[in-house]
Specification:
By secondary structure, the chain is mostly helical. Helix content is 74%, strand content 0%.
């Protein structure tokens, strides 16, 4: 196909007219089947062509991305094989180079499309130890930096999103792999510098922070405690997002990011936890945010506890009260059906929170301060045992809490609580449920062993489990 022909086909692939659109899609499919390398080379030239309309370039990028990835597993495997074995090296190099070049395009649609193409190729090649120089190229050519400067100059938020998106995808695929550890510090500084500029340059209503936060999450997971050096510069953006109840999707992402960051940083996250806890508690009380946020916030409390260990004692009294209050929420027979799902996810959040808190108090030798909370925890476990409205995740979290509590008080302090029949039954039901995943059943078995130890192995009730 000539350039004008491919332009027309790509234009038709965006047409509101279903007949035109289907015909165009068939032409693209046929071109891919006839000569796959030529098809890729033709598309990437249109993607990189600065004289072509942005919408056509975006359509070329979408067609390219669809040449590498598919939802259907067999089709996806087939496309990967075509790229790996059915495409010559010259074409591969051309596709990669022109796409990297387009990443820094002043045209937002083209830059965004290029980010998706790079991510799709990276997902195929990086796990196979190919395209090893990709991250080096991004650093040396300062693609990200160039793109950020263009973003600042043009206030083009979408171009910033393209930068954040490709960083996020590549970081997620590759940074956790150990061989990149040496590159990590250079990359981390470059990536965070770029992302902070992007965050500084976009308005409150932009969707860029979502992509930037995804990239930061991937980077923090890779760098773990070393990410701490960026926290002072980054936390103002995170606090703003946590407080931004008018943008629920951003606020939700910020809550998830607090979990990611505290898990990555461990005790080093402690200086920021007062602010995190205040924002999370405010969001919990909010009438602006929907109830769906509450389970994630409760889970986040557990992640913070797991990260800062005994330091969480500062927040224990307040959070215990919050968890007790959340445990009183029930679904009624005459209420909306969605309420049943909400109650289950809320209880999952409560159990995740207690799991983190019990572990934190145990590891720091502070289990004595927890003891007055134990009756409240068992009260909720008893409710869960008598309510058939459950999920596997809830049962797994509950088994974890039962085992953690038995393990935290090894001298039989809770022996009377653990002797109750309903508890034995709950563990047995979870342990023998054939629909549950092995890790859930393993957690139930572990809980049973901990309870047996708590009872000194003398209980005939537990022997039945």
């Amino acid at each position: 196909m000539s350039s004008s022909e491919i332009n027309q086909v790509l234009g038709n692939s965006l047409s509101p007219d279903a007949n035109l659109r289907q015909a165009a899609e068939q032409q693209l499919t046929q071109a891919a089947e006839t000569n796959f390398p030529l098809y890729l080379a033709t598309l990437v030239q249109e993607l990189a062509n600065e004289n072509t309309q942005g919408s056509i370039r975006a359509a070329a990028g979408l067609a390219l991305k669809n040449a590498f990835t598919a939802r259907d597993f067999a089709r996806h495997q087939d496309l990967q094989t075509k790229w790996l074995q059915g495409t010559d090296e010259e074409t591969k190099t051309q596709v990669k180079n022109l796409t990297l070049q387009t990443l820094a395009s002043s045209n937002a649609q083209a830059g965004q499309a290029a980010a998706q193409v790079i991510s799709s190729i990276a997902a195929i090649e990086l796990p196979r130890n190919q395209w090893q120089d990709l991250l080096n190229i991004l650093v040396k050519n300062t693609q990200v930096k160039n793109l950020t400067l263009q973003t600042l100059a043009s206030s083009n938020a979408q171009a910033g999103q393209a930068a954040a998106q490709v960083i996020s995808s590549i970081a997620a695929i590759e940074l956790p792999r150990n061989q990149w550890q040496d590159l990590l510090n250079i990359l981390g500084d470059r990536i965070m510098g770029a992302l902070l500029q992007i965050l500084n340059s976009v308005g409150a209503k932009s969707s860029v922070p979502d992509s930037a936060f995804a990239a930061i999450s991937a980077l923090a997971n890779a760098m773990e405690e070393d990410f701490n050096k960026y926290m002072e510069a980054f936390t103002p953006f995170l606090y703003n997002a946590l407080a931004n109840q008018e943008e629920p999707s951003l606020c939700s992402m910020a809550i998830g990011l607090v979990s990611d960051l505290t898990r990555s940083l461990g005790e080093r996250s402690q200086p920021y936890c007062d602010n995190f806890m205040n924002h999370l508690l405010n969001n919990l009380k909010s009438t602006t945010l929907s109830n769906q946020f509450k389970p994630a916030i409760l889970q986040c409390f557990g992640d913070i506890a797991g990260a800062i260990g005994g330091h969480f004692e500062t927040y224990l009294a307040v959070i215990a009260q919050v968890l007790q209050q959340a445990a009183t929420v029930n679904a009624t027979a005459d209420g909306p059906y969605e309420m049943y799902d909400y109650v289950v996810s809320l209880r999952e959040g409560i159990m995740d929170a207690w799991g983190g808190i019990i572990g934190a108090m145990k590891s720091s030798g502070k289990t004595a301060v927890l003891q007055e909370q134990v009756p409240h925890i068992f009260q909720l476990l008893s409710q869960i045992a008598s309510d058939m409205n459950r999920s596997e995740a809830l049962m797994r979290a509950s088994m974890g809490v039962i085992g953690d509590l038995a393990d935290a008080y090894p001298n039989g302090e809770l022996v009377d609580v653990f002797r109750q029949d309903w508890l034995t039954t709950l563990i047995k039901e979870t342990k023998t449920n054939r629909e549950f995943q092995p890790r859930t059943i393993d957690t139930a078995r572990w809980a049973r062993e901990q309870v047996k130890r708590q009872l000194g192995g003398a209980s005939s009730i537990m022997a039945q489990a």
